[in-house]
């Protein structure tokens, strides 16, 4: 048996919260002594861990008790439903953040300070052999699209040989409905593998959270306006130079934004 203090330390939950779980009949002590001391069984630690996990997923405590009694398949379905709800909540927060950012940009001089943080270069990019999956999605589905890409590459025996990237086919960007293609550079030939031609790009590197990448686009737009001798001639590309698997936190993410350009005749 573990005292409430020992169980608290092992489970990473305060004694006060354990008493509350007991009060709402979510997790009660295995034994209560005549002196009122609470004792827990070590076998209750996984139950506590699952309670904390479900709380972290956004389930209310009055839902968690019923969820703990569900078979694995039914629980997975409830988590999937919660996941979709979380995406909807995230979309709403992103829209709110965008409105806040637009307001702040107007207050801070149309974002000139942010544009000065970016160094736009003109670069020549070599031809790339890529495999891609194209789909119309909302921005919250980007990770799922790349997961589908890597799964399909695995089925075809293709291996990455460079950075992953997202190519925007649509003329107008939309957070809610964007025509994009998730791509990975590959070394092998095969069905679905094609070569992107070499070209000239106006490019900038964004370092930091993806939610702030629109500042990089604004910097590129400002560069295009300042260089009227160039015109856009293709789809924008986001190249993930240091993705979530490599960066320790969002501040360490590195994303290249590339606009294909050519000199006007």
Report a brief summary of the structure.
The protein is an alpha+beta fold and 265 residues long. The chain contains eight helices and twelve strands.
Characterize the structure shown.
The chain is of the alpha+beta class and 265 residues long. Helices cover 40% and strands 27% of the residues. It has 8 helices and 12 strands. It has helices at 4-11, 15-23, 45-56, 61-68, 72-107, 112-115, 142-156, 214-226; strands at residues 2-3, 31-32, 38-40, 121-125, 128-137, 160-168, 178-186, 193-196, 199-207, 230-232, 237-242, 254-263. Strands 4, 5, 6, 7, 8, 9, 10, 11 and 12 form a 9-stranded antiparallel β-sheet that branches. It is elongated, with a radius of gyration of 25 Å. The termini are far apart.
């Amino acid at each position: 048996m573990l005292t409430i203090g020992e169980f608290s330390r092992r489970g990473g939950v305060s004694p006060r919260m354990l008493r509350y779980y007991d009060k709402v009949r979510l997790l009660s002590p295995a034994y209560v002594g005549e002196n009122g001391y609470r004792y827990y069984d070590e076998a209750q630690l996984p139950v506590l861990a699952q309670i904390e996990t479900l709380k972290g997923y956004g389930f209310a405590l009055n839902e968690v008790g019923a969820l703990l009694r569900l078979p694995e398949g039914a629980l997975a379905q409830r988590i999937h439903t919660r996941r979709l709800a979380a995406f909807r909540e995230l979309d709403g927060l992103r829209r709110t953040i965008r409105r806040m950012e637009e307001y702040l940009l107007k207050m801070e001089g149309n974002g000139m300070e942010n544009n000065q943080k970016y160094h736009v270069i003109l670069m020549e990019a070599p031809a790339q052999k890529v495999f891609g999956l194209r789909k119309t999605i909302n921005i919250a589905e980007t990770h799922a699209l790349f997961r589908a890409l890597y799964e399909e590459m695995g089925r075809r025996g293709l291996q990455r040989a460079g950075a992953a990237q997202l190519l925007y086919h649509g003329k107008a960007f939309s957070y809610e409905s964007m025509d994009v293609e998730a791509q990975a550079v590959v070394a092998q030939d095969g069905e679905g593998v094609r070569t992107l031609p070499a070209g000239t790009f106006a490019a900038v590197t964004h370092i930091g959270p993806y939610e702030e990448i629109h500042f990089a686009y604004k910097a590129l737009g400002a560069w295009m306006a300042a260089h009227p001798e160039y015109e856009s001639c293709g789809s924008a590309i986001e190249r993930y130079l240091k993705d979530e698997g490599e960066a320790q936190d969002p501040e360490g993410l590195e994303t290249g934004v590339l606009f294909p350009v050519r000199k006007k005749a």
